[in-house]
Structures are given as C-alpha cells and as structure tokens.
Target: Metallo-beta-lactamase domain-containing protein
Amino acid sequence: MKYIKGLLALLLVVVQFANAQSRKTMQWIGGPTYVLQLGSFKILTDPMLSPKGDSAFIIKQHPGTGQMNAPITRLIAPAHFDMSKIDLLLISHPHADHIDKQAIEKLNKGIHLVGPEVNHDTFKNWGFTDINGLNWDDSTMMQKGNERLKIIAVKAVHAANEPLRTALGKGNGYIIEYRNGQELYRIYWTGDTVWFNEMDGYTRYGKIDLLIPDMAAVGSDGNIGRRGMNWVDCLHMANVVNPGKIIPVHHSTFSMYVEPISVMKLTFADTRFGKSLRVLKTGETAKL
Model:
C-alpha cells in the first residue's frame, strides 16, 4: 500500500511538471505591460506600474498638444500580478510610457533584463545588474531542461517621418520563440513602431502564432507626427505575417492614447482576421 501511494505521488509530480511545461498564457496588466507564461518561463514586458491618477508619468513633450513636461493621466489602474519568479524583463525601449519609476523601484534589480543595447547604460544607472543589450538581429537564449526560450531583437521604427523618428531614438521589437521538445510557439511583439517596408521580410522568421501589436496611434491628434501604430498599419502587418492570433496591447490605459481599440475591433471584424483578434480587458488572462 505504501509503495502504491509513493508511486501515485510520483506520478502526480510528473503530471504537474508536464502541465507546467505545456502552459502558455498571456495576462495584460495595462498599457504596454503584460506577462507571458511560456511553459516554465515567465516574461514581464515594459513595466508600467503607476497607480490610476492624473499624473502617472511626465512626458518630455505631449505628442498631441506639444506641451512640454506634460503629465499623463492613467485612466485604468494596473492589474495585480505575481511579481515573483520572473525569468526575463523584456524592454522595447525606456521611454517614460514604457517603464516608470514605480517599476524601477519595485522590481528586483538582479532580474535578467533584455533591452536595446543603446540603452545599456540607462538600465545600469537604474540599478539593474543582469543586462543583455541587443541590437537589431541579435538574439539570446535561455534553457530549462528540454525547454528553450529564444529572443530575437527586430527593427522598430517609432515614427514614419523625420525629425521625429531620430528624436524618439532606437527601439526594439522582438520575436519570442518557445520550444519544448518538438513543440515550437512563436510570438512577434512589435514594440512601438509604425509600418515600414522592411517588415515584408519578417516572414523569414517562420509562422507567427501570436502577434502582439502596440496600438493607439499616439500623436495622430497633433502636429508633431504619429509615433505608433494605427489599425491600418496593423492590418498591413497582419496580412504580411499572417498570425494565428492577435492580442493588442498599448491601448485604453493612458490619456495620450488616441485611437480607441473599438476601431480596431470594428475594422478587423470584416477581414480574415476577425476571429483571430482578441482584445483583453485589464487583468484578463488568455490561454495561448
């Protein structure tokens, strides 16, 4: 009897381990921030953890009004999530609307951070010690037993036109590949970008199971220039990479976001991606 109980306990551990490895979820925290659970790997992106309020962060120049040192309102509080056991902090770029002082204060400074190489010193000055800076086309890998996580930095173009493009600096998008034995799951997170013709070549990375676009067409309501994707850009991108699923982020949370996510839902409904698009509520978790 004792032998049978021991065998059942061992079997339960094996089943739990197998279930953990097959788990793939995405929780949207708000803005550009989400948590990916890919098997045993836990990834946190562009952490914006400021509370709901009229001055969540200060932006150097408001993209719509042009006001200098403009306070930005957080309309929806960040969702609660488990901040423990994060394997990777993935940063597209360190603008004030993509990593805030609350996140810098709260996060473990020994966390493994992957971000643009050009911002290595910025991350170091914030206190982070385990930094892997990637230029476009660079990659890095993490391994846990049979599981492998590969991060490939890809080009992101924050604005279509100069001088805004240069002023906003260089940022990354990422191809995120999770492999468990023969299983391969591939994500393309755009980061802050507009459509640019080189995206036609992103099919070289293989089938995209999930597209995570940064939306909201920031700046399209002013004279400085648009500095983010609108639904037209995203549809163009979707037609190129043909993703299995689309889960947008970077919408609804902050007052500087211009294009309502309802516009994307409405326009995509009449395309072949209507059933592929899923818009999460703040804090909602999707099974991938």
Summary: The chain is about 20% helix and 30% strand. The chain has a mean pLDDT of 93. Residues 27 and 284 are 6 Å apart (CA to CA). The first strand starts at residue 24 and ends at 30.
